[in-house]
Design goal:
Layout (H helix, E strand, L loop, with lengths): L2 H13 L1 H12 L3 E4 L6 H6 L3 E4 L20 H12 L5 E7 L3 H13 L5 E4 L8 H22 L5 H25 L8 H10 L5 H16 L9 E7 L7 H7 L2 E8 L16 H10 L14 H11 L4 E7 L3 H16 L4 E6 L7 H14 L1
Parallel strand pairs: 1-2, 1-3, 3-4, 5-6, 5-7, 7-8
Helix pairs in contact: 1-8, 1-9, 4-5, 6-11, 7-9, 12-13
Length: 375
Amino acid sequence: MNYRDVIKKLETAALYPDKTVADSIGKTGKAAVGCFPIYTPEEIIYAAGMLPVGMWGGPTELKRADKYLQSFCCSIMRSNIEYGMKGTYNMLKGVVLPTFCDTLKCICENWKVAVPHIPIIPIVYPQNRNTDAGFTYLTEEFRRVKVEVETLAGHEISDDKLEEAWNLYEDYRETMRRFSEAAADYPQIIGAKTRHLILKAGWFLDKKEYLEDIRTILEGLKQEEKQPFSGKRVIATGLIAEPDSLLDIFEENQIAIVGDDLAQESRQFRTKGREVGDFWERMAGRIADQKGDTFLYEAEKTRGQMLIDLVRERNADAVVVFMMKFCDPEEFDYPIYKKELEAAGIPHLYLEIDQQLDSFEQIRTRVQSFAEMLI
């Protein structure tokens, strides 16, 4: 298949996740397990012979979710509850939920009542993940999750299967890092929306199939000549860059996203796994080694410098902040890295977003004005 056809395939997969997941279940014969944001131990699910599926909400009319979550909660979580209650997630055999924020902590018990037919497996990550106690605790949490996933799967997970899953995911993460770098060189082909959809599609496909698709795209891009780009290059930061149609505005104004610090995208694969230790220690090590993430405690707050470094590495003109409305952890970080960006002379655009946005005109005006300011 031509690499441009693969791009179209992944765009379609991301735009219609329910159909994509159903097709993946049919193609692989695997049961699907939902993964709430932000980090879930997908390797354990995959090792059990099941399909990890991302649960990042989406645009939907919120009717039932208000029984459990107030209107001032993150729209991703409200959408997830809504989808669960109206049957959209009925194809899932279970869900795994990390309790990173106050809303996620509430979801765990609410889910048991609102969506009782889909079992939920909570996982609690330690705040002090770099201490010996925190590290040991996390390895034990992963072991507990393994036992609960085995119950879902109906069989034990062998050590060999865990190692196979780890190696596959490390291969996936390394390939995605290469894709992110390569895409920055071809903004005319991999525009803002296309880039987002390619990365998003990975949440709904079997990782082996997805990995083959990304490699096909990388090989195709190698055959293309790099062309000068007359537009502006930006780095995106935040939880997600959605709704998807929001990114049409960036393409209308010739703004390319050439790198990101988004929870749904590069935060999933930017940290290389350790090469020492057993499976559980390597799993915990990936979390311990994560830097600049709002949801993982970090006294030194390296996110601002990481954004500055990424701007320089990708030859970007500015940073765009996609601030999910009512996401307290992201909002707490903003004043800190805002000062650092300003001190470095890097312009930034702050956009407050919500998955239920039905009008984009104010955002369109702000993006257009920002593009003109960067000229």
